[in-house]
Amino acid sequence: PATPQITEALHSNDSLLRARAIVAYHHGNYREVYNILQHHSFRDTSWHHTLQSIWMEAHYLDAERSKGRPLGPVEKYRIRKRFPLPRSIWNGE
C-alpha cells in the first residue's frame, strides 16, 4: 500500500508525472497522456518541447488508430487546430 507521501508525489512531482506521461504514450494509453498533460502545470520549461511533441504525436496516433490508416498533412493540421497545446506545457511562445 502506498503511503500518502508517495501518493502525493505521484500526483504532483514533475519528474514522476513526466515519466508517467511518457510511459503511457509508449503503451498507447493516450487518454492518460492527455489527462496528465492537461491537468498538471509543469514548472520546468526545458521539458515543454518534449511534452508538446508527445501531446501532438499522441493525437496523431490516436486518430490513425481510429481511421486505420496514416494521416496526411491536412489531417494533421486539423488535429493541431482541434487539439491546441494545453497551457500546462505551453507558455504562449
Structure, explained:
The chain has 93 residues and is mainly alpha-helical. The chain has one domain (4-89). Helices cover 67% and strands 0% of the residues. The protein contains five helices and no strands. It has helices at residues 4-12, 14-26, 30-39, 48-67, 73-82. It is globular.
| Proportion of residues in helical segments | 55-70%
Radius of gyration: 14 Å
Number of separate structural domains: 1
Q: How would you characterize the largest beta sheet?
A: none
Kindly state the mean pLDDT as a whole number?
92
N-end to C-end Cα span: 42 Å
Helix-strand makeup class = mainly alpha
- Order of SSEs: HHHHH
The total count of strands amounts to: 0
Low-confidence stretches: none
Per DSSP, the total helix count is 5
Sheet-strand content, in percent, reads: under 5%
Gross morphology: globular
Topology (SSEs and partners):
Layout: H1 4-12, H2 14-26, H3 30-39, H4 48-67, H5 73-82
GO cellular component, one term: nucleus
Keywords: DNA-binding, Homeobox, Nucleus
Domain Homeobox protein SIX1 N-terminal SD: 8-87
Characteristics:
93 residues; DNA-binding; single chain; DNA-binding transcription factor activity, RNA polymerase II-specific; Sine oculis homeobox homolog 3/6 protein; SIX1_SD
How would you sum up this structure in a few lines?
This protein is an all-alpha fold and 93 residues long. The chain is built from 5 helices and no strands. The chain has one domain.
